[in-house]
Amino acid sequence: MKPADIKKVKITDSFWGRLQELVRSEMIPYQWKALNDEIDSAAKSYCIHNFRAAARLNEKRRELGEDFKQAKFSDPGFEVWPCDGEQPQPDKFYGFLFQDTDLYKWIEAAAYSLATRPDPGLEATVDEAVKLIASAQHPCGYLDTYYLLCGMDAAFTNLQSNHELYCLGHLIEAACAYYEAAGKDGLLTVARRYADYVYERMGPEGDIPGYPGHEIAEMALARLYNVTGEKKYLELAKLFIDRRGQSPNYFDEERRAEARRLGRQYRQSPDLNRYAYHQAHMPVREQKEAVGHAVRAVYLYSGMADVGALTDDETLKKACVELWRSITREKMYITGGIGGTCVGEAFSYPFDLPNDSAYAETCAAVGLVFFARRMLEISPCGEYADVMEQALYNCVLSGMSQDGKSFFYVNPLETVPEACRKDSRLGHVKSRRQKWFGCACCPPNLARLIESVASYAITEDKNTVWLNLFMGCEFTKEVDGVSLKLSVETDMPFDGGVKLKITAPSAAYASFAIRIPHWTDKDLIEISLPDGKIQKEKDGYLYISGIWEGEEEIRLSLPMPVRIMTADKRVRECLGKAAVMRGPLVYCAEGEELALYRLNTEKKISPEQGEICGNPITLLNAGFKKLSSNSAGLYTEYRKPEETEENLRLIPYFAWNNSGEKEMRVWFRV
Amino acid sequence: MKPADIKKVKITDSFWGRLQELVRSEMIPYQWKALNDEIDSAAKSYCIHNFRAAARLNEKRRELGEDFKQAKFSDPGFEVWPCDGEQPQPDKFYGFLFQDTDLYKWIEAAAYSLATRPDPGLEATVDEAVKLIASAQHPCGYLDTYYLLCGMDAAFTNLQSNHELYCLGHLIEAACAYYEAAGKDGLLTVARRYADYVYERMGPEGDIPGYPGHEIAEMALARLYNVTGEKKYLELAKLFIDRRGQSPNYFDEERRAEARRLGRQYRQSPDLNRYAYHQAHMPVREQKEAVGHAVRAVYLYSGMADVGALTDDETLKKACVELWRSITREKMYITGGIGGTCVGEAFSYPFDLPNDSAYAETCAAVGLVFFARRMLEISPCGEYADVMEQALYNCVLSGMSQDGKSFFYVNPLETVPEACRKDSRLGHVKSRRQKWFGCACCPPNLARLIESVASYAITEDKNTVWLNLFMGCEFTKEVDGVSLKLSVETDMPFDGGVKLKITAPSAAYASFAIRIPHWTDKDLIEISLPDGKIQKEKDGYLYISGIWEGEEEIRLSLPMPVRIMTADKRVRECLGKAAVMRGPLVYCAEGEELALYRLNTEKKISPEQGEICGNPITLLNAGFKKLSSNSAGLYTEYRKPEETEENLRLIPYFAWNNSGEKEMRVWFRV
What we know:
Distance between the termini of chain A: 43 Å
Radius of gyration of chain A: 26 Å
Largest sheet of chain A: 10 strands, mixed
Oligomer: homodimer
Shape of chain A: globular
Largest interface: A-B, 55 and 55 residues
Number of strands of chain A: 23
Strand content of chain A: 15-25%
Structural class of chain A: alpha+beta
């Protein structure tokens, strides 16, 4: 199974079409300006600034030749910003040390957009950016503006923390995307040169037996192998995975070498879980629990799944299944958010899923979508697509406002604005979206996922097309030399009707695997099939097979009942509470004093047409009992509580905080 | 009103007598060993080490005279410990920069013990300690081993953070206590010399218009004035209070001067709440909300109440009332614990009182007891004694184990051992008591409060004796030349019976004010009085007045019903929950899976005799409904919960964690 080629899929869906248009018309131009520091009211990026500074260094290098001497590396820290009132210096690095990736992610998003909707202006801007990146690359192939500007002598000395391989990964992703979209190999050449250099240094014959401190290079190198057919990229990806967490730990070796350089004594921490943050606490094949920084984790697991599939490595695939289970059975919010603790932006221990102090980073949910699709590729089970859908429609989309202009980094399931302002333990939680972040990983990650969503919705092999996510689209599928024209019509995520039209110029055998979502009532699904087709259910998919000719139509009506959900008893934060879902959407309330509301589970919850910011949306009208807020004192004798019946209109979680700053809550006492 | 002189009160109470005996026989000897670093299994203190090192410096000073040159101050940081495997150097400072106070608090506790129970061995040890302290004092009177050892040139340059006046405060408290207990003025002389030096530098003519970053000197100086009659100590206390939070802020000035010294630019933080941690964000008379570090706050408020009473300053008294209300109406746990957040060990915003991540430091509850008694001294209202009792019997006593050998710094209202181990956001919460702490402020604070508890239980003026807390004791009261012998018998906190026997050798007029606790049912109190006495209720006290002669007896029976308590609706963490109290005691459950238990408020909760670690205790047998822990998955459709009826034996909160490490919980879902 492979993801659909997004060039061949035209999204016609009103829901996703609008989002893609937002990305094209708002986010991509806005983010380009942000990368260029042209937005006064937002935090400065310095991303383009850094590439320009590195390019100037190359000019100098060329001019001076052997006379070129760069100052030795003097560690400026993890993030560098000009002091208040200080003008940024043209030859200095600013931002987080992985600032380069913001440009790469932007190019990747732009590439996906260009793949389906040509835009010569945007393509010219991308070409300009590619030129800039190429001009910043070191003659040896190395490319990370942090070390290029701060001192190349220290390059690759701190793989654990300093993100050079993370930059490589995002560069490769952007390069592959742009090559596939526009057929231009300028950036691909840059990426290959950097990858070749890394192979030289870290490959089987290299001098650095390291691996990334922040994963992504693994899946990126697998992709580079797929695009170029060059085996050494897959080999390097596999090396990164195989070395990870082996003893002696490479990150220990790095710290030891650093201590030697600085003439200090090195003391190894006795903590057996050291490097769990980086998923490097044990060999990956022995890891059964998802731990550490959540984004890093799912990026690694995605890479493991890629390499597992490409090398047909059963031990890797098995580890992926274990880790998938750990996440989805014990460590995932109902919104598909992951990362229960802000400490290390990380997975907490099993079932520790606090609602108000959740981390649930947008990027981590994006990464979970990556991981889910790769698990689908290994084994087409509905469970993977269910989680993919849950993460996508809830935690991922909550990451951006309805107008595409502001973003959440952290996606809590309960907020009280006063608490966010006054409680420093909630310092990471914002009760309204921000325009841009100094560490702007999430907005461009959203953009690249939304623009490539078709490759998650639809996957295929020789004769089969899987509809994993439901969205209106048109695409073609070649089977046995026949080009089938397919079109999907649906009003998901608000209505369960799905129509798949197949137009076959001549007879061809094909299967269409339509996912039966976990949220529907399987026994009540209505299916209408053309004559002579075989229908078979397997692993959460309905396979409809047969010979197709002329115009044929499959119709499904998936019941989409309102569901009151409860959490495993070990999720202490949700004990005695319930959440409301309909279809893939988690619903929430916005308002005041929400803690006083108790969901009346006896009362029918009814869907209602509504809109948020002009976008049609299905709301839910739910009955609650509201506790009187009267209090005779801080602690008083208990009396049976006085409650009044009240209704609240619940909105989809992804659409919260689009009409001012209010309290928000997903889980209600019952 | 003044606190009773503890020398005149003999505690005969089984509950408090046992605790005082524990302090004498266990804590005082144990802590002396700890201060001397003689306990292998506990964190090292270095407290005595530091005084010895400073004393050696004085010897050198005497030997070398004008040739004595000390190295310039080089900031070693807030805490200094030898590296692993490194031997402590005899001339170096170790520990927290306020390490001296541990010895002072130990002496204070020992003094209170000696006041009622002579012990020549202990007295000799105290005298030895006093000699050591005196030998460490700088010829000028200055006394803080941190700066004495690290560089006197920097003394008083960082009052905000570096605790020299905190050390002064504890030194004075110890000196007054030992002078009152043993009549020896050796330590008092040391304390006066340091206070005189501080007066010289910070008094009205001094060069440093500062005030303490960590308060306590205010109340200590008021006490020193009471003991010595020397007005300048009261004047200095008042100056510290009056200067606090005035603009320009002295702490800003300090930082500015530091920047000047280091040749750096100083930038004032634009945060209007800066210095709220130190209660120095605005003048104290304008402060209406209790904020910042909770221990600092209640120490300051205690000092304000002392100075307000001694100078009859209505504006100060009024500020104390406002701050008292802020704490007790909005920011106090039901256990009398204060400090809702670990960030700054501080008060959080109103009604933010999380149970599992509570700070509720033992020392802060001790400080609240200090503040409460001072509020009583200003105005004898039962409310103050109610809170004093609530804090004392719950949060304060929770601070130590039944065997007096281990201690809690933080007193949560809900713990799950797994969470404490695995959730770094709960790093401050321990699920079992510790033997000693590097920062050992709490154990000696407990010791000094327990040994002086009589001065909180009983206060007096010319003709009136107030019984604020109920405990068995014998004491004498001089009225109009007649020496009344008084004795109290009671089984508090487990039974509401109180008997006060008055023996008057000749007729004398006196009033006995017996507190009517908030937890009793006022209408059901049974009172038996001798003939001819007048009984009048005022502000939560029952005043029984008349002429006493021969042996007379007042008997009260205060009903002590089990009370199910609820919190103000704005305490989000307690919504839909209830706690159980009986008398002044908050009860809790210990066990497994406590989150699954719902308190059955319909079922009678019955007291039962029991014991914990051999100590008799009243337990409560309460009915619960326990949720089945079966879970079909992480998120499943809600069904009416399956519950089974179960009983749990609740124990007094102060006695939790005396039988192994289990879950503990005060607030239950109802």
